[in-house]
Structure formats: C-alpha cells, structure tokens
Fold each of these.
Amino acid sequence: MAAEHGHAIVPVYLGGFWGSVFSYSGGRFFWKIPRRVPYRCRSPSAGRDGQERRAAGPPGDRRAGGAGQQPQRADVPAAGPPVPPRLPPQLLPLEGGRHDRRHLSGGRLLAGGLVLRKLLCRNVLEENEPRVGLLLPPSVGAVLVNAALALDRRVAVNLNYTLSSSVLNDCIRQCGIRRVITSRRVLERFPLKLEAETVFLEDFQPLVRPADKLRAC
C-alpha cells in the first residue's frame, strides 16, 4: 500500500536473531533454551530512503530486482561478525579491566560511581545543573567522578589545572559551570582563583551511609 500511494519503502535488515528464542531455529518458536544470555544481535541495517521505491518500479511491479530484493541488499553491511554493543565513551572504563595502582575493577568502579552519584545529588548538585567542572589529575578519583556524572546524565567538563586562572574562568563562563569538583592538594599545588563554587572530593568520604553502599551493590 505504501508503494501504491507514492511513499518510500525503507527496508530494514535485523541480523543475528537466528538462535534466539524469537527465531525458528530448532523447528520451534519460544519454547527452547537460548544459546546464550543475554542474546547479542547485530545492529540493524537499513537501505537509503527513497532508493528502494525507485528500484521497485511502478505500483504492482513484482519483477525480480524490485523492492522484494532490497532487504537482501540491506543485509550486506551486516554480513560481517557481530559487533558487541559499546557503552558511551564516559562509561567505557566500566566494561572491565583494572585502573590505577589500587586495581579498581569495572565492578568496583560501577559501585563507587553509583555511591558518588548519590552523594553528589544529595549534597551538592541541583537538577538544573547539566554541566559540572572537574579539576583533578589523572587518578582513580577523577575516573570515579566522571563515571558518577555520566551515570547521572550530566556532562563532566574536565579542566586543565596547568592553565592560568583567566583561561580556566573563561572556560567556566562559556560552559555555564556553577561548581567545580577538585581536591585540596590540587589547589595547594596550583593556587588558582576560580569563578565558581569549589567542591572538594575529600569531603565526601565521611558522608557515605551504609544504605548508599547497599543500593550500589
């Protein structure tokens, strides 16, 4: 009906579903054990808008090479090996591995990020505060703060502590930053004058409640 009314037909190919409980592998739907849990499927591949309508010919055309063959063409980009889904760049450290000298695993990083996210929302940040400045050296603490802000759907603006106060304040104004999370040791080493409220990372440790740890587990 879409082709008869002049609308574009966009074929979409969904790859990697064979073997899942929604496929007919094994001669049955649903009533079978999946090969793996969770079942990873390939990203969908779609044809270009309008191209398939021109290839299909006039309404009612059923010749070979028409719109019926377009889904097979759309599966060509997805013919390679399945690409595992990736986290957003801010959360890539949560995929696993170890970080820094403290051997912080991905699971511990996720738990620490959730706890710190709760502390930031409860004690510091407001709802209408999409961007938060960070003035921290490369460390476990900096990774935790970045993860906590990403989990709370905020933008972590990592500032360069080797810049001058005037340049940093210009960045703060352009990004609309109201608070900067930093460390006392950083400001002792770099006596910067920031035009924003400074929040010290060391002050959060006494604020952790047992319930915060339980929720993050």
Amino acid sequence: MRRLLFLFFLAMPLVAQTEVGIIVGHADAGTTDAGGTTLSFDHGRAYGLTVEENALELAAMSLRYDGTLRSEGASANMGSLRLVPISLTARRRFGKLYAGLGAAYVKASALSSGDLDSLGIGRVDVESKVCWLANAGIVFPLRSFSVVIDGRYFAYRPQSGPPDARVRLNLKPVVISAGIRWKL
C-alpha cells in the first residue's frame, strides 16, 4: 500500500495533464516449468488508461490470462489470472517514435477453478509486487487526437503457491496495444 501511495504522490504533477488515452491490446506471458509440471497463461487480453505530461506517463492497465496446468499428458484449467499494473514511465521522443523505462506495481489475483479444487490444490495466491518496465511505440498525430501503437515489457516474476512449496512464475508480460490519445 505504501508503494501505491508513493506512486500516487510522485504522479501528482500530472494533474495538469496534457494527453489522456485509452489502449486495447494483446498480452503474452511466459511459461513456467516446475518439477515436471508446466504452468502456462494464454489468450491474454489488455486494456488501460494513460495520462502523459512532459515525457512522464502514468498508466493503469488490466491484463487477463487463461491459465493451464499440464503434467504427464494431462491438463487442468487454473482459471483466469488478472493483473493490474499501475506504472510510471519516463519517455524520450525521437520524432514520432518514443522509448522509455519505468516502474510498475502489479496487483495480482488468485487462481481458482473447479479443476484445481478437484486436484486438491484449491485456491492459489499470486504475489503482487513492484517491477521495472520497458516501453516503446510510435505516435501518428491527427487533428485533435493521435493514434498510438505501443509495446510494454514488465519484468514481473511473482511467487505463487503455498508457503511450503512456493514457485517463481516466469510471467514477464509483454503487451502490444493500439490506442487513441487526446490533447487537453
């Protein structure tokens, strides 16, 4: 909670926002191999809101993945993993192109499904934590708004599972999105 408050106070100068935007896209996440069991998160979807002022961007996104557990030819549905990264990114523009680095607090939901219950696993907590991110994109300015193609990499590798058998998930989400920004 303190980290979230820190990001909020750090972003206070953004009250005089110059550009606001919405983004929609596709999110990929890495696969984790843990002792003969593969944990994968597929069919990622992303949407979010952005505010940019003087090359600083504050963004809040929602990422959703369908989780699958595979072991020895069998598979089980793990339910949906929902991630909410709230990020602050410093950017440098090169004409229509931009690149940046920043930090994100990623809030994660727990995994739960009927398959996990029937296997005796039950609900699986996923760690929420701070990570760094890299961002790049291209802006196509039009009359009163801009169209944006954006890519983001989150170095997010949370721990998951019961305290006696924690596994580090190799998620590292990559989000490719398109969006619209309006100048205020």
Amino acid sequence: MDFPDLLDDFLRYVRVDTRSDEESEDFPSTAKQFDLARLLEKELIQLSLDDVRVDRWGYVFATLKTNQTEPQPTIALIAHLDTSPDVSGENVNPQVWKDYDGRDLILPRGDNVVLRTADDGYLGEKIGATLITSDGATLLGADDKAGIAEIINAVKYLNAHPEIPRPHVRLVFTPDEEVGRGTEKLNLDEVGADCAYTLDGEKLGEVEDETFCADSVDITVTGVNVHPGYAKGKLINAVKIAADILNRFPADAMSPETTEKREGYVHPHHIEGGVEKTVLKVLVRDFLEDGLKEKEDFIRDIVETAGKRYPGATIDMKVKESYRNMKLVLDQHPETVQKALRAVEMAGVKPRKNIIRGGTDGARLSFMGLPTPNIFTGGTNFHSRKEWITLEDMQKAAEVIVHLMTLWVR
C-alpha cells in the first residue's frame, strides 16, 4: 500500500506545539492544543468526511461512512493531540535520516543527545530505514502525532479505494491524554462506536490489551512555622518530615528504575512546599488491583509511622483512582484483540501481543463501555529528546488500520 502524504503530514503535525500541563485546571489543559485540532478539522473537511467538528473541549470528530449496503458496525480510531509535559514540545525541528546506516546519530541541537545502536538494540534493527528524530532540543512528538498521521492516511487510502470494503469509521482525536484526562469530557454517545482502537503504541507489530492499574497518592504534611531564631521546641518542619517519609521508600526495589515486565512500583515524582506545608505526590502502579492495594498499604504504614514520630504535625494521605487494567474488559470482547492481531499479520508483520507499563485513553474508554485495545505506531523513547520513529513502521501501522477495517465488515 502507498501512503504518499504520510511523512509530510507527520512532519507538519509535530511542528505544532501541543504540550499539555498537569498543573492546569483548564480543559484542555493548554489552549494551544486547539491549534492542532483546528488544523486537523480543516484537513478532514478537505477529505470530504462527514460529521467533522471540534467541540468546545478540543475533541476532534469525523466519520468515513461505510461503502456497503448492509448495516455495518462503527469502529473508532483514536489518537491524542497533546505531547508530554516532561520535555519541551516548542519549536520542534524534525530531522529525517534516510537510509540509516547504523552509525551514532548526534542530534544537532541536543546537549550531548546521541542515538547509539550500542545503547538501543531496537535501533540496530532499523538499518536502511528512514529514521525521524527531533534536533535534540525537544521531544519529537511521535507520541501521538504518529498515530494521528497514520489514522488520517489510512482513511485517505480507504477513501481513494472504494473497492475496499469498510464499516463506518469514526475518527476521534483527544486532548490531555498525557496528563491522564483524555476521556474526561468525552461523551460516548458522540463517539457512537461499537468498539475502538487507540493508535498510541510503540514497536512494530505490537497489539496491547493490558495496562497497569493506576492510582495517585497525595501526602500532605502540615507543620508549624515560627521564626527560626526563636524556634526551639516550637517549630515543626514539614519539609524534613516529608523528606523522612520519602527516605523510607525503597531505593533498590518497587520503583520505576528497578522494575520491568509485570512488576509494579511506587513512584514519588513531585514534592513542593515549605516549612508549614509540604505535599509529596506518588504514582502507584500494578497490573492487579490486589497488588495496587498492597503498595498503597505499604505507603500508608510509612505515613502512619511518621505520624507517631512527629506528633505535632498533621500528615494526610489521599488516594485517587486513575485507571484500571483494560484486560478486565477486553477479555469479554476477544474479537477486538483477535482482529487487530490478524490485521498485523495481513500487513506482513509478525504480531506481538504485549502489555503497557502505563495507560492509554483506551483503558478508561474500555471501562466506560467502549472496548479499546492499543496498536503500535512505530515510535520509541517516548517522552524523551531521544524519541525516534521510522517512516517504514508508520506505513505499516497505516496498512494495519486498512486491513483492520476490512475485518470488521459484516
């Protein structure tokens, strides 16, 4: 299959800064996500799709109607507009490296940002491919603008080839996925789909039907602040208490940097405050809800012990549910995953069913009632200035979408 616009579309999308903001209370969290939403709206209208619109929350909708006379299901294809707040997405300057020969790639504006096959065995598998990176000063934004480009180019192909049978195809591009709010304002009646697929995965051939179960924990320490010159017996330092709590988290286990595969973790990722009040934020992850509870009980024991050690302080722990393992839902709809794996095979790629050590919009959508596995985009090193993707893998992802749509035709 030929997708002649895929590279140009992708390069155009990544140049639009759509970085989200986890501290913002607005929705979407950054107004600049509308810049890409409006751009996509214009392009989808030019493709003569139906029901094209951007709603007030920044969701982009469009429909490619079936070309069959018999009633057909509606299958949604979903990708997210925003990029990670962890790394700058401003003035992304994509670099295209044709016929990659395996050499070390020194990104021109990075502070010693180098891609090496010695460090990244997967990169070594891409000899001869067209590699796309940032210039090293920013992330690339393949997460998830590659997914957007692949969906749009698959729809272009289906539109240009009416001889290929298809169901109703619903396009949904969401804001704020990177800050865990991608489905917060999404109405499933507006999506109107029987099932969905997120194009938000990584390596070639991967189809993902499991995510972490995820919660967030806020530990708020309230101390007593008095003038330090006259503080003896009076001052209770919330910063020191929070540091003591943090120091009791294991350094060599149960953390992102020490776990892999199906191992969960607790991840203190943000601390802010002063003597009177300090807040410590912790991510809790496990593939099983029982494992999630065990880790939260572990944190609670640390907090309760600190409360006894510092009786003059107030230490409050709040747990907030983020998402749950979508496999609990997808196991009730096995055809959604089976068809995705078959579509990968039809594209001439070996399918690999995989787990996500993270979450996607699909996790929440599945529990909202819309079964939503995740399909690869071809990118890797997401949320990093070392993020990269190959054009060839993006083309395969677009081809998988085309095959997948044919499999849903009744």
